[in-house]
Amino acid sequence: MYFAKRIKEERLKLNLTQQQLAEKIHISRQSISKWERGESYPTIETLIDLSDLFEVTIDELLKGDHSLKNKIIEDGKQLAYPKWKAVFDAIFLIGAAMIIMKIGIAFGNRVFDWNITYFKDSLFWAFGPFIITITAGIFTDTLGKKFKE
Q1: Which of 45, 53, 111, 143 has an alpha carbon within 20 to 30 A of 100's alpha carbon?
Q2: What angle (nearest 5°) sits at the alpha carbon of residue 121, between those of residues 117 and 127?
């Protein structure tokens, strides 16, 4: 509840209404009201804006409010998660495309006599697509569990 009290004190020091503060940091007045009642917390980006406006450090805004600290930590994890998920999703799609290509070439060679050689002696070509696809799937699942989608 420390943060709620601190936000209101800082706002009043600058003689700002909730509406005026909201306009300065480009959010709704209802958000300010919820913060001051301790019903919700701002994002890290908004905390930076508040810190600049009030001319206090983020640490000063956060000190003593463990709920807000935990929220910021969780927000930070959520920011990193989509980037890693996109990377592993792309790797998964590459592996799946390689598997489909292998099946298509094998089918074409057998049914249509294409006679396409495709790295038959390559150990990577033999197992790589499956390893890539399975590994990417495992990492995507692990990230989902770690960051609780």
Answers
A1: 143
A2: 100
In angstroms, the CA 4 to CA 97 distance is 52
Residue 36 to residues 4, 20, 31, 42: CA-CA distances in angstroms?
4, 14, 9, 11
Q: What is the pLDDT of residues 89-142, one digit of tens each?
A: 899 999 999 999 889 988 888 898 888 877 767 788 788 899 999 999 898 888
For residue 107, the SS3 value is helix
The CA-atom distances, in angstroms, between 82 and each of 8, 29, 60, 149 are 34, 30, 30, 10
Decide: helix, strand or coil at residue 118.
coil
pTM for this entry: 0.49
* Residue 123, token pair as written in the block: 């150990």
Closest to 3 (Cα-Cα) out of 52, 54, 67: 67
Name the burial class of residue 42, with classes exposed (0-12), middle (13-18) and buried (19+) by CB atoms within 10 angstroms of its CB.
buried
